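Sequence only, no structure available. Ideas?
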Amino acid sequence: MTTRRSATAAALAGVLAVTTLTACGGSGQAAAGEQVKQLRYQGGVGNVILPELAADLGYLGDLKLTWIGNTISGPQDIQAATTGDTDFGGAFNGAIVKLASSGAPITAVIGYYGVDDVTFNGFYVLDGSPIKSARDLIGKKIGVNTLGAHAEAITKTYLAKEGLTDAEIAQVELIVVPPVNTEQSLRAGQIDVAALGGTLRDKAVDRGGIHPLYTDYDLLGKFTAGSYIFRDDFIRKNPDTVKTFVSGVGKAIEWSRTTPREEVVAKLQEIIKKRGREEDDSQTTFWKSYGVAGKGGVIEEREFTTWIEWLDRAGELKKDIKATDIYSNDFNAYATGGAA
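Reply:
I predicted one. Tokens follow.
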């Protein structure tokens, strides 16, 4: 069992619960004594997230997902869950740490994306670029999807590891660029380095003319980088719902590992076609893995302590916090060696 919240956080959870019930109307609620059977969430354009895959595979049972739109970033997605606009959200673990340290009553329950030798985030420059090292990045622009998340943490980790001082690191400019436009911005010379991940990275590399200066896999190896969170008040009221969700997502992770790649790609394309949002599904052809390190999405303590320590050194934590205050594997049967 993981360590639970302090009395202060518990009190804040009660406040948020009242606020959430007022803000949410009746969309995500159940009658008194009942647990919700419908989860509101944000998706991604041309992308199939693990809960969507789990639902299509029948792993969520009678639990239904209600798509309310697409997220613009992980921090925005977990903020939406915190304010009650959605019921769950996913983000880089460092972003979850920052939100939790601000007092948000949230718990990470399962890992959903990560880094391995085929699925990673690279920071690419044009072939022929004068940028050859970390020091060459001083005064340059790096295009990232959002600030305060995965790309920023990896970049600053890389710069510090390469010996740059805090003052020098501050001179490396991070520019927010929508992921679908990042490659184009690099090739047009609007940025000097492009943070590219997943199938968007694979498509860009396939077109040629770019190469990575550094990658998160080179820096940290294989690890789960992001988790899904729920509000603590939601978990207290709907523990079975959360367990069903975690079980289904865990099964979907393992299904994607054990199923031939071409079958996974076909399933992703089928899901995109069925939902009828007029999306380009071409990026699915580059899918290789979700990159989750732990079996069934089980979270390891180091996947949060790494970013707690980094954020603490950077002076970005609003209060002291432990990894076990933030995540729980209690709903994940894979944590005890079983199948969800």
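The chain has 13 helices and ten strands.
Hope that gets you unstuck.
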